[in-house]
Amino acid sequence: MPAYLLGLPVAMALALILWERRAPASAAQRGEWMNNGTAFALTMFSLTFLAPLIAVSETGLVNGLGGGLVDLRPMAWPVGALIYLVAMDLGEYLFHRAQHALPWLWAMHSLHHSDRGMNFTTSQRHFWLDPAIKSVTIWLAVSLLFRADPLILTIYFVISVWHLVTHANIRLGFGAFSWVLNSPQYHRLHHSGDARHYNANFAALFPIFDVLSGSYRRPAPGEFPDTGLDDTVTRPLELVIWPARGLIRGPPAGALAEGQGAQPR
Question: 218: how many CB neighbours lie within 10 A of its CB?
Answer without folding.
Answer: 20
